[in-house]
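Lecture notes, unit on protein representations.

Consider one protein chain, 357 amino acids long.
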Amino acid sequence: MLHAVIMAGGSGTRFWPQSREKMPKQLLKLSGDRTMIQQTVDRCHGLIKPEHSWVVTNAIQATATCQQLPEIPSKNVLVEPQARNTAPCVGLAAIHAVHCDPDAIMLIMPADHVISTSDDFQNAVKQATAVVQETPDRLVMFGIAPTFPSTGFGYIERGSSLQNVERAFEVVAFHEKPQLQLAEEYVSSGSFYWNCGIFCWKAQTILNQLQQHEPDTYERLQRVAQVIGQDGYDRMLDEEFPQMNSISIDCAVLERATGSTVIEAPFTWDDVGSWLAVPRLADQDESGNTIDGPFVGIDTKDCIIRTPENHLVATLGVSDLIIVQTEDATLVAHKRDSERIKELLAKLKAQGRTDCL
């Protein structure tokens, strides 16, 4: 049985001031009429039953997550007591999936990505599931054919093709975010994909891999697994989870495992990593501005402007700015400084302005 696992505990700091600790980017409408986490669930409609969908989040966001996803049973919203990166996150979902379905196959997805069409996505998932069913020890991931030499994504190097499986290849190696020259070499070679962080494997297989490569985390997960559905579950989770090694599933398992498969994704994908992604997801006016809300501008070019319906933004003689207005905060930044928003948040925290975080 195929289970969906949606990783939804991120803070989305690069989308401040709209994204906050209690309402991060996956709970916002950044593309379309549905929030990003709702679109992630919608993408699996008809393929995966709601009762076989798991959402891993944190205590601050759990209530809003449940409110946005009423079709998913509340017991399937797993609350991490502390952020420990994606390896413990995936492990927590795996022990729950195995508890209700020993043969569970997991489709792991971040909650905050934009994918072109549900049909293409579901066809790719069916292909990945077939590979896992045929070879249960396989770890399958999706690779995005790069359209430019990105220095912000990790890369998967492909090897020989799998027999009788279209667009599927053995994984040779994983590569961290490269410098520009190396990224250009990756793209020109035609043998590298962007690692989009969407995976498919048997729940028991990933637990076996954690046992081999992260034995302490595995043992702590097993202690939690023994009390799923019992009164002592929350106490055990609170004791064990924060002590697990904070490490990504990529570093914990994928970079160490052998026999992994990458499937070239037939869908377009965007990880929506910062405000700079917004123009890729929406239309621009004749001056290259991406506008959401009341706006009037003169000699304004290539700006990103988001504002509530009751607040007008007016600009004169500016370009390449990010202007985001919310009820209690306004951001004005040059596009080149989009990655520095975290510095602003650190300064707000140092000033005790937690009301704005």
